[in-house]
Amino acid sequence: MFKIILAFLTLFGFLHAESELKSLTIHKEDIQAQNNTQEQESQKEAFKKIEWQLGFGYSGNFSKFKSDMVNYSNSNTTTLMLKAGLTYRPIQSFGVSAYVGIGMQTSRFDAQRIPISLSNDDLTKLQSMITDPQLIQQIQAAVTSGNLNDFLNLVSWQAFDYNYLKRDYKDITYISYAVPMELNFLYYFKNDLALFLGASYYKGGLIDEGNVFLGVKSYPIEVKIGYNFYLSPHYHDNARMSRQTYPAATLYVGILL
Question: What predicted TM-score, i.e. pTM, was given to this entire model?
Answer without folding.
Answer: 0.63
